[in-house]
Write a structure and sequence with these properties.
The complex is a heterodimer of chains A (174) and B (820). Chain A folds into 2 domains: 82 residues, Beta-grasp domain (Ubiquitin-like (UB roll), Roll), CATH 3.10.20; 90 residues, DNA polymerase, domain 1 (Orthogonal Bundle). In chain A, helix 2 crosses helix 5 and helix 3 runs parallel beside helix 5. Chain A has 5 helices and 5 strands, in the order ββαβββαααα. Chain B has 820 residues and is an alpha+beta fold. Among the domains of chain B are: 196 residues, Aldehyde Oxidoreductase, domain 4 (2-Layer Sandwich); 154 residues, Aldehyde oxidase/xanthine dehydrogenase, a/b hammerhead (Aldehyde Oxidoreductase, domain 3, Alpha-Beta Complex), CATH 3.90.1170; 191 residues, Aldehyde oxidase/xanthine dehydrogenase, molybdopterin binding domain (Aldehyde Oxidoreductase, domain 4). Chain B is 24% helix and 25% strand. A 7-stranded mixed sheet of chain B has the order 4-8-2-15-12-13-14, with helices on both faces. A 6-stranded mixed sheet of chain B has the order 10-19-18-17-11-34. Chain B has a 5-stranded mixed sheet with strand order 1-24-23-22-28. In chain B, strand 25 and strand 26 form a beta hairpin. In chain B, helix 6 crosses helix 7, helix 10 packs parallel to helix 17 and helix 16 crosses helix 17. The radius of gyration of chain B is 27 Å and the shape is globular. The chains are: A alpha+beta (174), B alpha+beta (820). Chains A and B meet through helix 2, helix 3, helix 4 and helix 5 of A and helix 1 and helix 16 of B. The structure holds FE2/S2 (inorganic) cluster (2 copies). One FE2/S2 (inorganic) cluster (FES) sits at the interface of chains A and B. Chain A: One of its GO terms (molecular function) is 2 iron, 2 sulfur cluster binding. Chain A: Keywords: 2Fe-2S, Iron, Iron-sulfur, Metal-binding, Oxidoreductase. Chain A: This is (2Fe-2S)-binding protein. Chain A: Pfam families: Fer2 (PF00111), Fer2_2 (PF01799).
Chain lengths: 174, 820
């Protein structure tokens, strides 16, 4: 165990969590998953390459595997568990709903990261076209290859026009 | 003992219809939708979908118990070395460490394996690949476990690696990876195992069966093309790394929560290694973050159980990404040599193929991969004279085994490349040449197996060719860099961008082959809950993302006319469902669920008769189940299930088998070895920046025959996903191995297609039912993985004029820089 630990307080999904004995090297991802039991955020690579660990910090998307938990004291962290204001499976967020309706996943392992990334993306206003959605979702890998349906789900919520002639509307629309 | 974070049984309630993403051509027979909402042919929501999008679905890495320990694995730093000694004392003494185990601590059998039990639980005598497990540790914190590994001292005598599969196959002086006798279980006599060869399978037809030489057969053809090809090592790269939680039980057994593709085959390998009877090794499927073949072999299963039994505490093991690259089998890399001869008017006369598949250090599924590569090595073409020689070998490279489309993927790239070369030689359109030689129902494969199901290959090729093309690239005007190969990273203005179009078609065996007694088991229970009829479906089948939980519910609704279906978690309390591989689960577990439902139905009808509801005047009355009621064809509703069953339940368990298959003859390769054939056709359109060596796939359109669509939306997902993995193999995915060492075990250096790499797809689905299969369905997950690769490479060839005989195609292959 490290010689020095510290105590940090994280604000996650509208609640405060004190983390006593925090190893300063702990990533935000590990703190969420192991210390707070919020296992909805996934670890696909641990090195910033897959996007499975995407969460929001003050509304901006970040890769929690590349963030040190201690540096996020005082920031408002939102994870997949806290995305829907009322929380839980009973009242899912429109993005969560759209992912289900569009079948925008298979194994679902990338999905929490995709949805959090999409939430950030919509806030950033980067949803003008299917191409733009693709460009700004390109940090989130999906090995099952559900990409076409991910674009459709994000477009549904962002009300992105699926331009006739563009090939995107083919997906899930006929 | 408390139980780990439970996986909630997934209730399937009042599904809503989703828009169908599949374009069914007008001529295709309509999919008769089930009368029960959410039945076969409709697209109900995935029952586990809401849990997956809210983060509540428990994957194997999410399992947690308060008193659990963390396991970690010490792996060999050498690809090939003799172990002179292992000293664990330093690790044992560390505070927080609860157990340090080596091969001496394996309670039972010291080896396991899917086909041959040749893989040590923990290395002894020798290590045969870099990353082979040597010792395991359980500690109270993952970091402690990892640091304890550093204190284990292993004394290695380093040996020369056996890295070249061709040498391993043919050079009698090549060192042996497995010394005969000492450490190899006996091989199947028909597999011709010798030296480093795990299996050799020849196939001979026509003049080759009569002993003709290549020169004699060559004389029959007007045009001959030859090619040498290489296929790199592809990784399944599922996003959720290997993980599991083993919990010691009071009866001396163990409960393992694990992400796997086949619970019972894991159980049958784990139990002997632990020295326990199978009933004391109970497995429950934990959430699976993708599989694609990589979870058919075991990873940490026995390790976690050993540590749990030794410490008396639950033990969790989770691999990180780098460890995952070393912790599962990969797609066999291959070297292949092909020769095709045809008449001037484009009829194939003969074909030969020599295929060497690198199985790496342990056999895994290598023998089965050879069986597929040999029997389907020449693809879906009518060829009078055929000769195939397929070899699977041991090397000290990373072990290879199952990945989506195994054996057929490697061959498909080559025979399709050959057909393109031949078409160019003959001045024929590649689709035209394929149509002239296409197999169809009634054709025989190179192994003499008659295709006794529809195979509308010519029609599929025509449809692919006739699909609308994407718009041309604008010749003038402002350039949108996002649309260029390389996207925003492109440094040109698109001056060197050329467009190309290519086609690919592949033939895949579906379900298990070569005489394997394959079956699946389902238990179905009908009872009344809260005044309403409800069905429970219980199988041991692994949901890996393919959507089998949805399909099971659909089948139960269709057969029992009951909307409310609950699919129970998969575990070993019910009989084996077989593997979630070979595109077989809709067929096999679908078949088993259907059989169990039909048995339940029959029992219900007995109850109806026993209750006197079918009068003597209607002895042969046709009974059915619909809307939760028993209905008579003649008289309408007879009784509601709620009234009929009251407090009693009807439960039936059934095993389902597909028809028997044959072994391949060990010298001629003849035999009806396959259960079912699947086919997909792709047309790829690419833009290639010939100066920068970058490729953008503009369109990747597909035509696939699936016999019968069970769930249009999930089916489209399978076709899109399989095509994307084929795209990865064509253009970017390769585990680079040199000196038997993986050089790129991370997502930084092993590239998988992103949302920018995979274009929107146009998909046409045909439904020509297979008369032998439940609902006429055909497995759908694998065929797209075969044909997308050669279609894309053909398109890149068309754009560049380069021969491109190696996949993945690298930028230097496109710009023409020689490699040494
Ligand atoms: S786990 Fe953070 S990017 Fe992959
Ligand atoms: S759904 Fe499996 S990785 Fe995206």
């Amino acid at each position: 165990m490290p010689a020095q630990t510290l105590t940090a307080t994280l604000h996650v999904n509208g609640r405060e969590h004190a983390l006593p004995d925090l190893d300063p090297r702990t990533t935000l991802l590990d703190a969420l998953r192991e210390s707070l039991g919020l296992t909805g955020t996934k670890k696909g690579c641990g090195l910033g390459h897959c996007g499975a660990c995407t969460v929001l910090a003050d509304g901006r998307r970040i890769l929690s595997c590349m963030a040190l938990a201690a540096l996020y004291e005082g920031r408002e962290i939102t994870t997949i568990e806290g995305l829907a204001p009322e929380g839980g499976a009973a009242r899912p967020h429109p993005l969560q709903q759209a992912f289900v309706e569009r079948d925008a996943f298979q194994c679902g392992y990338c999905t929490p990261g995709q949805i959090m990334s999409a939430a950030g993306l919509i806030d950033e206003g980067r949803t003008g076209s299917p191409e733009e959605i693709r460009e700004f979702m390109s940090g989130n890998l999906c090995r099952c290859g559900a990409y076409a349906n991910i674009v459709a789900a994000v477009a549904d919520v962002a009300r992105t026009p699926l331009v006739p002639g563009a090939r995107e509307p083919e997906q899930g629309r006929s | 003992m408390t139980t780990p974070t439970p996986r909630t049984p997934v209730p399937v309630h009042s599904p809503r219809e989703a828009p169908s993403p599949v374009h069914s051509p007008r001529e295709a027979p309509p999919s008769p939708a089930s009368s029960t909402p959410g039945g076969v042919g409709s697209s109900p929501r995935r029952p586990d979908g809401t849990l997956k999008v809210t983060g509540e679905f428990a994957y194997s890495s999410d399992m947690w118990m308060d008193d659990m320990l963390w396991g970690a694995t010490l792996r060999s730093p050498h690809p090939h070395a003799r172990i002179r000694g292992i000293d664990v004392t330093g690790a044992v003494r560390m505070p927080g460490v609860h157990a340090v185990l080596t091969h001496e601590d394996v309670p039972g059998e010291k080896r396991y394996g899917l086909e041959y039990r040749d893989q040590p639980v923990l290395a002894f005598g020798k290590v045969r690949y870099r990353g082979e497990p040597v010792a395991i540790v359980a500690a109270d914190h993952p970091e402690t476990a990892r640091r304890a590994l550093d204190r284990v001292r292993v004394d290695y005598e380093v040996l020369e690696p056996v890295s070249d599969p061709v040498r391993a196959a043919f050079d009698p002086d090549c060192p042996l990876v497995h010394e005969a006798g000492e450490d190899l279980p006996p091989a199947h006599p028909a597999h011709h195992r010798s030296g480093n060869r795990v299996r050799y399978q020849p196939v001979r037809t026509g003049a080759f069966a009569d002993g003709a030489t290549a020169a004699e057969v060559r004389a029959l053809a007007d045009v001959v093309v030859t090619g040498e090809y290489q296929v790199g090592m592809q990784d399944q790269a599922f996003l959720g790394p290997e993980s599991g939680l083993a919990v010691p039980a009071e009866d001396g057994g163990v409960d393992l929560h694990i992400a796997t593709q086949w619970l019972h085959v894991d159980q049958s390998q784990i139990a002997p290694c632990l020295g326990l009877p199978p009933e004391k090794v109970r497995l429950t499927l934990a959430g699976v973050g993708g599989a694609f073949g990589a979870r058919e072999d075991m990873s940490m299963q026995v390790h976690a159980c050993m540590l749990a039994l030794r410490t008396g505490r639950p033990v969790k093991i989770v691999y990180n990404r780098e460890e995952s690259f070393h912790g599962h089998v990969h797609r066999h890399p291959a070297r292949l040599r092909y020769e095709h001869g045809a008449t001037r008017d484009g009829r194939l006369v003969y074909a030969t193929a020599e295929i060497v598949l690198d199985g790496g250090a342990y056999a895994s599924t290598t023998a089965a991969v050879v069986g597929v590569a040999s029997s389907l090595g020449l693809g879906p073409y009518e060829i009078p004279h055929a000769r195939v020689d397929a070899y699977g070998v041991y090397t000290t490279n990373p072990p290879c085994g199952a990945m989506r489309g195994f054996g057929a993927v490697q061959a498909c790239f080559c025979y399709e490349s050959q057909l393109d070369r031949l078409a160019a030689e003959l001045g024929l359109h590649p689709v035209e040449l394929r149509i002239r030689n296409a197999m169809s129902e009634g054709s025989r494969t190179a192994t003499g197996q008659r295709v006794d199901m529809p195979l509308p290959m010519a029609d599929m090729l025509r449809r692919a060719r006739e699909m609308p093309m994407p718009p041309e690239r604008a010749a003038a005007g402002p350039v949108d860099v996002r649309a260029l190969p390389g996207g925003v990273a492109n440094t040109s203005r698109g001056e060197g961008v050329r467009r190309g179009v290519g086609y690919g078609v592949g033939l895949k065996n579906l379900c298990f082959s070569e005489g394997f007694d394959d079956y699946s088991t389902a238990r179905v229970r009908l009872e009344v809950v809260g005044g309403e009829p409800a069905v429970q479906v219980h199988t041991a089948a692994a949901e890996v993302g393919q959507g089998l939980v949805t399909i099971k519910g659909q089948i139960a609704r269709t057969e029992l006319g009951v909307e409310r279906v609950t699919v129970l978690p998969s575990d070993t309390r019910v009989g084996s469902a077989g593997s979630s591989s070979a595109s077989r689960q809709s067929y096999m577990t679908g078949g088993a669920v259907r059989a169990a439902c039909l048995a339940v139905r029959a029992r219900v009808f007995e109850l109806v008769r026993a209750a006197g509801l079918v009068g003597d005047d209607h002895p042969d009355e046709l009974l059915g189940l619909a809307g939760g009621k028993v209905v008579s064809g003649a008289r309408g509703v007879l009784v509601s299930l709620a009234d009929l069953l009251g407090a009693s339940a009807v439960e039936e368990t059934r095993e389902f088998r597909h028809r028997a298959t044959e072994m391949l003859d060990p010298t001629t390769g003849q035999g009806a070895s396959h259960t079912q054939f699947g086919m997909c056709v792709h047309r790829a359109v690419v833009d290639v920046d010939v100066d920068l060596g970058l490729v953008k796939v503009v369109a990747l359109d597909a035509v696939q025959d699936v016999g019968r669509v069970l769930h249009p939306q999930q089916l489209a997902g399978q076709i899109q996903g399989g095509s994307a993995q084929g795209l990865g193999l064509a253009l970017m995915e390769e585990i680079q191995v040199s000196g038997s060492v993986i050089r790129n075990p991370s997502f930084t250096d092993y590239l998988i297609p992103t949302i920018l790499d995979v274009p929107p797809m146009r998909i046409e689905v045909l439904e020509h039912p297979d008369p032998h299969a439940p609902y006429g369905l055909r497995g759908a997950g694998e065929p797209p993985t075969l044909s997308s690769t050669p279609a894309i490479v053909a398109a890149v060839r068309a754009a560049t004029g380069r021969p491109l005989s190696r996949i993945p195609v690298r930028p230097e292959d496109i710009v023409g820089i020689e490699r040494d």
